[in-house]
Amino acid sequence: MAGKILVVDDEKDMLTLFQRIIKENTGHEVAVENDPLKAVERLRTDSFDLVFTDLKMPKMSGIKLLEKIKEIRSNASVVVMTAYGTIETAVEATHKGAFDYITKPFQRERILLTIEKVMKWQEVLGENVALRRALAEKEGFSTIVGTSPIMRDIFRCIRQAAPTMGTVLITGPSGTGKELIARAIHEHSLRYTGKMITVNCTAIPENVMESELFGHVKGAFTGAWKDKKGLVEAAHLGTLFLDEVGDLKPWLQTKLLRLLQEGEYKPVGSEITRKADIRFIAATNHDLRADIQEKRFREDLFYRLNVIRFELPPLKEKKQDIPLLTYHFLKKYTALNGKNITEISGNAMKALMQQEYPGNVRELENIIERGVIFCSTNTLKLKDLSLDDQHASLFSNLAPDLFRLSFREAKDKVIHMFHSQYIQTLLSESGGNVSRAADTAGIQRQYLHRLMKEVNIDAEDFKVGKSTSRETDFESSS
Ligand SMILES: Nc1ncnc2c1ncn2[C@@H]1O[C@H](COP(=O)(O)OP(=O)(O)OP(=O)(O)O)[C@@H](O)[C@H]1O
Ligand SMILES: [Mg+2]
User: Fold this and answer.
1) In what order do the strands lie in the sheet with 168-171?
2) How many CB atoms lie within 10 A of CB 177?
3) Residue 365 CB less than 6 A away from ligand 1
4) What is the DSSP string of 66-79?
5) CB distance 180 to ligand 1 below 6 Å
6) Residues 144, 148, 153, 154, CA torsion sign
7) C or N terminus of the chain, fewer CB within 10 Å?
8) Distance in angstroms (rounded) separating the CA atoms of residues 391 and 337
């Protein structure tokens, strides 16, 4: 991307230097100003992607200029330039929204690297704006958001698959939008006037699953004191969504297969075969092929389901959708909470882009929801988002009171937990053989003995033939 850069410094030599470096090494446009007041005027009429500004200038400080820029051109990235002695002010500038700072004397490479970083970031922001427009236009999938190639592909497949009767199998890790896609397919199908009935194969206990699915007749079993319709009947002329189908028990898989193959089923306790006109969509986060190998999933059922396949990627494989998803959830949760938050600070967005998201889109959604609740201005800021607290929560899972203890006590407690857990694992692996355990751990046998005594562990308990599950959970051992 060819961008526009403005350099503001009261020293003319500096301006010339920057102009030369940028012109000779990049394809970006560059303008210079030696008077910050003029720079402000210029920013009102002209847009820039990046502004380099000196911190110490006679008419207006760099910090003041930074604040002005954030007012007039909130999307421009500002990099402050500072002499060695004023690093603290530079750091303050980054807290006030500067993208970065560079220190004098300047190195050409450092300047170029900074420009590259900013332009990449501007590209994301630019897309973001375009995406927000796309969001407003609603491509017919108002609830599903994404413009990454993978998502474009998915939208195209939904359009193609929805109007057919083809059975759909949606796979992907938890929180990637499987249910969302299922609903979109139903809503874009010719059956949209019918219902989409969801069967959560994990949530319904095995012993009532058959009757939940197929219904039962009066007297079929104790407690069946009248006929009851099942979910299959409710989905007639509509869509049956079999969520978490990989968790269905094999004998129920067989009954499901019959329904898929012949469109027929029998309510529990009935001899009369019934017919149902149903479109099937199934979802799972299992690897069904592995389940087939291990005889947990029927191969013939898999092929019945796997006619049209959607494979949803984890969020980390479509990071470019994060800004759009973030704005989507921001809109959703500001409306739900009656708040007026319209912007997301650059730092917050940067941090969101860098998260790991093992819980995928659902995790991002939860982060934004929490952020909206804690945000008290019209801009969602980094401090509103509780990010990077994995370590804190790891410890608070181990010991909820940890952060109420003194440093000494907390540290002793964690070390105690570590010793106890480590030694137990070590000894169960060595079958209670202390010499071998010490060897594996690379410590002296005597030292291991001392530690065992400290955390009250007896090697005897780990000898073969004895129970190895000592009940030394963290609480009771400390
Ligand atoms: N592309 C997307 N656009 C907007 N929201 C999304 C998107 N993908 C997922 N979500 C949201 O993320 C949350 C999780 O999605 P969903 O329940 O469909 O995931 P799932 O794959 O079925 O997860 P699980 O396997 O845990 O059931 C939902 O609130 C959903 O609306
Ligand atoms: Mg789901």
Assistant:
1) 196-200, 239-243, 279-284, 168-171, 308-311
2) 26
3) yes
4) HHHHHHH-TTSEEE
5) yes
6) negative
7) N
8) 29
Q: Do domains 149-311 and 318-388 have the same CATH topology?
A: no
- The reply to whether ligand 1 has any atom less than 6 angstroms from the CB of 175 is yes
CA 365 to ligand 1: nearest atom: 12
Residues 125, 75 contacting (CB under 8 angstroms): yes
- Compute the distance from residue 143 Cα to the ligand 2 centre, in Å: 15
Q: Among the CATH numbers 1.10.10.10, 1.10.8.60, 2.115.10.20, 3.30.479.20, which is that of 318-388? A: 1.10.8.60
Give the least confident one: 263-267, 301-305, 413-417, 442-446.
413-417
Q: State the pTM of this model.
A: 0.58
Tokens representing 73 are 């051109």
pLDDT at 397 over 80: no
Q: Which residue has 């540290």 as its token pair?
A: 411
Question: What percent of the chain stands above pLDDT 90?
Answer: 57
Q: With beta carbons less than 8 A apart as the criterion, state whether 40 and 73 touch.
A: no
Q: In CATH terms, is domain 4-117 a member of 3.40.50.2300?
A: yes
With b for 16 or more beta-carbon neighbours within 10 A and e for fewer, the 407-438 pattern comes to: eeebeebbebbebbbebbebbeebebbbeebb
CA of 362 to the centre of ligand 1 (A): 6
The tokens describing 438, both together, are: 């010490």
Where in the chain are the domains? 4-117, 149-311, 318-388, 402-477
177: left (phi over 0), alpha (psi -120 to 50) or beta: left
Q: For the chain, first and last CA: distance in Å? A: 59
* CATH 3.40.50.300 is held by the domain 149-311: yes
Closest C-alpha among 316, 313, 315, 327 to residue 125: 327
Q: Which candidate, 243, 254, 261, 241, places its Cα nearest to that of 297?
A: 254
Q: Which residues pair with 30 in a beta bridge?
A: 5
